[in-house]
Design goal:
alpha/beta
Length: 387
């Protein structure tokens, strides 16, 4: 069992700021920090996802369709009951559904408003000035930003060549006394996979009082194995899941953390269970119903794979380097600074994703519908011709 941390010294202002990060997510956290005169650490994360009407959205890794039909039906029914806080036990129903599907105890499952909150909570709960964070580079940056706020040192380890997997041995060597090792699998922004045996090695060899945070936000786009066996076996692992991607529920805000109860308690040590109890009933109902239609999620995965590979082939034929991906994204190297390409694409009504400091010539491209990706390819052709 992981021993409780000594905790961070928190005055009223710092508690307010921290509560904003843990409860409201990154956007609310930024507003709260600004209001209190303590700016969020600078990073390239969290640009505005607002785009002009009619713009094709290939910038946020959202799925191009909404929830599956059964999920929509369940959400509509729940709206009619939403005059009550918990009209039909929707939160417990989601926990039971996940518990049964994943073969873990119900006390191992905690729902959240997306997976960003438990990610931030893991950094706060397991890191501090003496216990750092280790991640790949590039990867999803929110963990870096929260670590900077709590004063935890961050070690960023380049992805392994040539497969772009997390280099787990280099990650352990980068900080053998870290409190948290963050593995996003498939990784964001690359869509690359880290073999489960590598993740298991990290769990086996990490410090005894450290935790591996395994972010599986994009797992259902791939055929990769989950790390759930590590949780079932009682290891020091927290798994994150989200309904914001292939389930088409980004705007409904629903996610999960799955871990031993003592690890879940560490995610709630600064504000208790209140945030996970205050979840919208329609989102809970939609999530439960969607999980019962995994056949439709499988269909989404296969269509995304076909569209992604067709798009990658087009880009490769134009002489652009494209990293292999097992998720709903591609990392494209333009061979020149990516920012002007991004601006040129936006001028043509297509919003593409950002770059990471380690790769300033590469852009992350979300895979949209087949029709959207046809328009993307045509626009790339025109932009390259004008360059």
């Amino acid at each position: 069992m992981i021993e409780p941390s000594a905790g961070l010294p928190l005055d009223r202002r710092r508690m307010f700021q921290l509560a904003a990060v843990l409860g409201g997510g990154l956007a609310l956290g930024e507003r709260a920090f600004a209001a209190q005169g303590s700016p969020m650490p600078a990073a390239s994360a969290a640009p505005s996802l607002k785009v002009p009407p009619g713009t094709i959205r290939l910038n946020g890794n959202e799925y191009w369709e909404g929830p599956v039909d059964d999920g929509l039906d369940a959400a509509r029914a729940a709206v009619a009951r939403s005059n009550y806080y918990d009209p039909a036990g929707e939160r417990d129903a989601l926990i039971e559904t996940v518990s049964t599907m994943e073969r873990v105890g119900a006390d191992h499952v905690v729902p959240w408003a997306g997976s960003g909150s438990p990610l931030a909570r893991a950094v706060v709960g397991f890191c501090g000035p003496e216990r750092g964070l280790v991640t790949a580079d590039p990867t999803f940056e929110v963990a870096w930003m929260v670590a900077a706020y709590v004063g935890a040192p961050v070690a960023k380890v380049p992805l392994r060549s040539p497969d772009q997997a997390h280099d787990v041995r280099a990650m352990l060597a980068a900080n053998p006394r870290a409190g948290l090792y963050y593995v996003c699998n498939p990784n964001n922004p690359t869509g690359s996979l880290t073999p489960m045996e590598d993740i298991a090695w990290l769990v086996e060899n990490k410090p005894k009082d450290a935790v591996v945070l395994l972010d599986e936000a994009y797992l259902h786009f791939s055929h990769a194995a989950s790390g759930m066996d590590l949780v079932r076996n009682g290891r020091d692992v927290v798994i994150l899941r989200t309904f914001s991607k292939i389930f088409g529920m980004a705007g409904m805000r629903m996610g999960l953390s799955i871990a031993r109860p003592d690890l879940q308690a560490r995610l709630m040590q600064y504000d208790g269970v209140i945030q996970t109890l205050q979840l919208p009933v329609p989102a809970l109902a939609c999530a439960s119903a969607s999980l019962r239609r995994m056949d439709q999620i499988t269909n989404r995965r296969e269509q995304t794979t076909q569209t992604r590979e067709k798009t990658a082939a087009f880009l490769t034929q134009r002489g652009l380097a494209v990293l292999p991906s097992a998720a709903n994204m591609l990392m494209v190297d333009w061979g020149k600074p990516a920012a002007p390409i991004k601006a040129a694409m936006e001028a043509k009504g297509i919003a593409i994703g950002r770059s990471w400091p380690i790769w300033p010539t590469r852009s992350r491209i979300t895979i949209g519908s087949p029709q959207e990706m046809e328009r993307f390819c045509a626009s790339v052709e025109r932009v390259l011709a004008q360059a």
